[in-house]
Amino acid sequence: MLKALHLFTVIVALATADLRLHRMPIYKWENSVKNRNNVMSEVQHLRHKYNLATQASTAASSASGGMSEEPLSNSMNMYYYGPITIGTPGLPFNVMFDTGSANLWVPSYNCTSNACLSHSQYNPTQSSTFVPNGNPITLKYGTGGMTGYLAMDTVTVNNLIILNQTFGVAVTELDDHFDNVYFDGILGMGFSDLAEDNVQPPFYNMYAEGLISQPVFSFYLSIDGTSTLGGELILGGSDSQYYVGNMTYVPISVDDYWQFDMTEATLNGVTICINCQAIADTGTSLLMAPIDAYTNIYSILNINPDASVDCATVNSMPVLKFVIGGTVFGIPPSNYVLALDGECMVGIQTMGTDFWILGDIFIGQYYTEFDLGNNRIGFASVTGASYTNQASAQFVSYTTMWSVFALLNILSIIFKLY
Question: 99-150, pLDDT tens digit by residue?
Fold first, then answer.
């Protein structure tokens, strides 16, 4: 009997191995009154983030039939953020977890920009673990960006204490894009090659310091439009309770952004992209298409010159399908069309590039695993959502069901033997 209990303990430990995952609740902020300005402001932000402002502006204008440039708002459409602390004792900051960048930065106590004054600010004199660095840093965001200096201090993420993490301290924020947001700074989760000034990103240091067992993190983003709890950032692996079936993995093609090969994209039976590149970016709520693909989308969906569509036609619009790693990932029109203030606008835009950016419209439907150790990215259908070929709100995680069933059978055999 004792042997049976010992085996039971071992099996339970294996079955609950995912408890070693570090789960960090993340929160969603969504503009209560969305309008075209919010969307186009986010597009402009992405143009500068990817260093494509001038080229993209001309190309996008051509693709949209010469849509006029309007003054843009400084309010983001939607974003996900969570709490960290910096220093000893820890000063709390809210940061946006951004797989489309690789640096951590927060405002400085002596920054006088509006965006700094309305947020938490880092004061090195108040931390006993601050280590001076002093090297200057400039990061491009939106119409400007941030300038400041590098510092080193203890950074705590969900009780994971990273020692001597180098990060940026913003002395000037040139972009009013961040004036009215809930997050204070950005925690980049891209590859180290993407980081400015050769700074090691926090996630790399988490693994190097033995704080997580695997160099893997994953995002579950809630698609509930009314919830402020936006989902979870899971550090050290993935949680199968959040997705249905198996993960589809593809290798990373370029080690800076989380970029990979997409076999094909189709809309209404028309192939709009073959053997194209795509980037998974948690730092945007939109889908960004290559210029040629967007031109086709514009025509197929009969998008108006101002980027709007007739709200009455949304339910009859086709599903946008991506083929990734041999699996079809569908985005229904209910997800890619945004309900704005009295109108509907397609949440698929372009920056005039030759690659896709898959933001939260995609990641909100597909649980996404970022596997740094194996240099790959994985996607699986979020439990309970509707997809092409997997459309049922009654789906549960068959992986989880099988694990429980197998555990019960093994326990039954053990107790029969003893």
Answer: 999 999 999 999 988 888 889 999 999 999 999 998 999 987 654 578 999 9
Whose tokens are 């459309």? That residue is 391
Full-model pTM:
0.83
**Is 360 labeled as catalytic in the residue annotation?**
no
Half-sphere exposure of 377 (CA within 13 A, CB side): 26
**Distance between CA atoms of residues 243 and 58, nearest Å:** 40
CA angle 246, 247, 248 (to 5 degrees): 115
Structure tokens at 396: 């549960």
98 catalytic residue (yes or no): yes
Q: Can you name the residues that pair with 307 across neighbouring β-strands?
A: none
Q: Give the list of residues 6+ apart from residue 217 with CB closer than 8 angstroms, or none.
A: 189, 203, 233, 234, 235, 236, 369, 370, 372
- Token pair of 20 as six digits: 């070693």
Residues of the chain with pLDDT under 70: 1-19, 30-35, 53-78, 141-144, 174-179, 223-228, 386-418
* pLDDT tens sequence across 224-274: 644 567 899 999 999 999 999 899 999 999 988 999 999 999 999 999 999
Q: How far apart are CA 397 and CA 408, in angstroms?
A: 17
Is-cis flag, bond preceding 89, omega within 30? yes
Active-site pick, 175, 281, 360, 371? 281
